[in-house]
């Protein structure tokens, strides 16, 4: 068990903060505090801070981990850092389970989602910056149709992709769009809260799992008694959460959620696979009726080196896609329907990547690293005279 966190954070000398995280800190041989490291994360524009024994702290900037100019961390350093930030009510839990998730706020710097863990007998932490407010979808390079899906009055809209693909950022922008244009009640259930929303036209109640509610299922059931118009479920993790989300979408609510799936086809299969075989036909039917669209994302580096851009597949649920969801064996593959669905503003990853390369936003080599079919993308680009 670790000692209780001290109310006073010991002073650690800091030489200078600069925009380049490789030159952020100068330190003494004293125990290192996490405070200057979080300042460094914020000043470098990074998204995450990693601290572990035997290595210097690192910050993730534009998807890449970069070392801070700090000595290798010792076991006493990371234990001290855990003591600085862990809430008192999690000290005992962390002492027995050796992992904990919680939020930490630092005055003048911001709010962070924290995961503390034990590895090979020593402590480590990962901090994720929590944004206040959201960027407009247009600034993210997200297709306009995603905003249209966000403003649907009812139904289920899913944002999918691997970890670190920008799902949370896109969802936050969708919530902000609703908050800006609709006079509705938005209830979010998140683990943890990563973007803070202030009321605009809508009212937004954000609930954090373990902090404000026991789990997603409990909060989702309670949300139905809170007169919601829009419900955001941070992640569909189990059968009961999926069942409750589908039920809410069928009964006139707009439900937004995420899955760790790579495209629309896999997303449908993952949802169906949550259920036992005897229920899967019924689930396919319910999904075909409730679903409004699936937005799948992959991040690709911008050609000018200024950051990353989302490559997006969009499936809008139409009569043909609904048939493919109910009877996949008797209908064309979803990917073909998406490829041919330009009238409904659908697009595949490779169609979006073609546009990004054509417009000079992404290089050909970078596009090929995330393309679903790099060979087909190359043929299309060569046919348009965009690559040799």
From TrEMBL:
Q: Which organism is it from?
A: Cellulomonas fimi
Q: Which GO terms describe its molecular function?
A: ATP binding; ATP hydrolysis activity
The UniProt family comment states: Belongs to the GSP E family.
Q: What is this protein called?
A: PilT/PilU family type 4a pilus ATPase
Bacterial type II secretion system protein E domain sequence ranges: 224-238
Entry's InterPro entries? AAA+_ATPase, P-loop_NTPase, PilT/PilU, T2SS/T4SS_dom, T4SS_GSP_E_ATPase
């Amino acid at each position: 068990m670790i000692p209780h966190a001290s109310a006073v954070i010991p002073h650690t000398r800091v030489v200078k903060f600069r925009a380049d995280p490789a030159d952020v800190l100068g330190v003494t041989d004293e125990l290192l505090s996490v405070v200057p490291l979080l300042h460094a994360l914020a000043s470098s524009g990074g998204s995450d801070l990693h601290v572990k024994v035997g290595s210097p702290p690192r910050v993730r900037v534009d998807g890449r981990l970069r070392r801070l100019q700090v000595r290798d961390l010792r076991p006493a350093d990371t234990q001290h850092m855990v003591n600085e930030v862990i809430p008192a009510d999690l000290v005992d839990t962390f002492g027995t389970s050796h992992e904990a998730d919680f939020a930490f706020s630092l005055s003048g710097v911001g709010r962070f989602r924290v995961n503390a863990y034990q590895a090979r007998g020593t402590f480590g932490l990962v901090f994720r910056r929590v944004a206040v407010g959201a960027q407009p979808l247009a600034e993210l390079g997200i297709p306009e149709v995603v905003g249209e899906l966000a403003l649907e009055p009812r139904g289920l809209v899913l944002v999918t992709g691997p970890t670190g693909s920008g799902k949370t950022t896109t969802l936050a922008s969708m919530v902000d769009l609703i908050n800006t244009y609709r006079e509705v009640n938005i209830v979010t259930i998140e683990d943890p809260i990563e973007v803070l929303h202030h009321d605009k036209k809508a009212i937004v109640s954000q609930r954090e799992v373990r902090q404000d509610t026991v789990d997603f299922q409990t909060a989702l059931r309670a949300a139905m008694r809170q007169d919601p118009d829009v419900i955001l479920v941070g992640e569909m993790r189990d059968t009961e959460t999926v069942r409750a989300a589908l039920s809410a979408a069928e009964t006139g609510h707009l439900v937004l959620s995420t899955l760790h799936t790579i495209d629309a086809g896999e997303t449908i299969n993952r949802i169906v696979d949550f259920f036992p075989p005897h229920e899967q036909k019924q689930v396919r039917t319910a999904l075909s009726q409730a679903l409004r669209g699936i937005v799948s994302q992959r991040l690709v580096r911008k050609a000018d080196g200024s950051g990353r851009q989302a490559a997006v597949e969009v499936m809008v649920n139409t009569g043909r896609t609904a048939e493919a969801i109910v009877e996949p064996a008797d209908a064309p593959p979803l990917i073909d329907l998406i490829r041919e669905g330009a009238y409904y503003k659908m697009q595949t990853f490779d169609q979006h990547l073609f546009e990004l390369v054509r417009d000079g936003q992404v290089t050909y080599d970078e596009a090929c690293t995330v393309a679903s079919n790099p060979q087909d993308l190359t043929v299309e680009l060569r046919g348009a005279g965009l690559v040799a």
